[in-house]
Amino acid sequence: MNKDLFSLINEKLPTFSKGHKLIANYILAHYDKAAFMTAQKLGKTVGVSESTVVRFAAMLGCDGYPALQRSLQDLMRSRLTAVQRIEVTSDQMNGDDVLDRVLNLDIDRIRRTLEVTSKTDFNRAVDQIISCNTIYIMGTRSSAALAEFLGYYLSLIFPRVKLVPSITTSELFERIMHIDEKDVMIGISFPRYSKQTVKALDFAKHNGAKVIAVTDSASSPIAKYADSLLLARSDMASFVDSLVAPLSLINALIVAVSIKNVDKVSATFERLEQVWDEYDVYTKSEEEGQ
């Protein structure tokens, strides 16, 4: 669905039958609850049949009710406050199965990431990173951990890697003002999306740099700037963002880049091992010390 689901419902609302209006109004008012209801439960809640709910999904252009449900869940993640996230999670999980539930959901997110991310875009991103002059990496809030992880490993491979921190807007542009067509900007953003990351990618694009966007959806606000769009499934786990799949995707990106620079990477780490050993950087385990 190209349009925002809520905009589409509001646009079509005057044309709906009485039953479809009941469904539409409930979704608009209680989307956080409707997102996890079966068609049968949603119908029972608003007083219509399950088949009416299924027809409602079809009228919105969805390929079945599950597609409508997924659209609601995607919208929900970008709109819910932290308090609302906690409330939704409390309704969906109980204390006895949280461990199994969260880990199995993360496994499913990695599987779905394999389905949605483009190998063409992935390979293009690898080539853009390898051939550029300077690599800029931008990620704020929970995505800052992903940006720092990526920046740490790329800085071991390439001499010009700049991690752009979460700072004031004026300082942001001061940090990236020299970006040009020889450079790459990697922007990482997941719901709730960062305005700073959007501004940074917009600036990079207008200055001719290649843009790699790591995000959750083609409708993400940073996707439109991307020369290479890398999609990873990210969902909420209470007020916490689940970033297992994005981290796995970033890990794959690092590995792919290192494989294409295997001689350089091997030489770099051979030198690093000597430095680490000389300056006693790492401690040994008890087994190694014996």
Structure notes:
- With 290 residues, the chain is an alpha/beta fold.
- The chain has 2 domains: 5-109, Winged helix-like DNA-binding domain superfamily/Winged helix DNA-binding domain (Arc Repressor Mutant, subunit A, Orthogonal Bundle), CATH 1.10.10.10; 117-277, Rossmann fold, CATH 3.40.50.
- It is built from 15 helices and 7 strands.
- The chain has helices at residues 5-12, 18-29, 31-34, 39-46, 50-59, 65-79, 82-92, 98-116, 119-131, 143-157, 169-176, 195-206, 244-260, 262-278, 286-289, and strands at 135-139, 161-164, 184-188, 210-215, 228-231, 235-237, 240-242.
- The strands form 2 sheets. The chain has a 5-stranded parallel beta sheet, sandwiched between helices.
- Helix 9 crosses helix 13 (244-260).
- The protein is elongated, with a radius of gyration of 23 Å.
The CATH topology annotation of the largest domain reads as Rossmann fold
Shape: elongated
DSSP summary: helix tally = 15
| Proportion of strand residues | 5-15%
Q: What percentage of residues falls in helices of 4 or more residues?
A: 55-70%
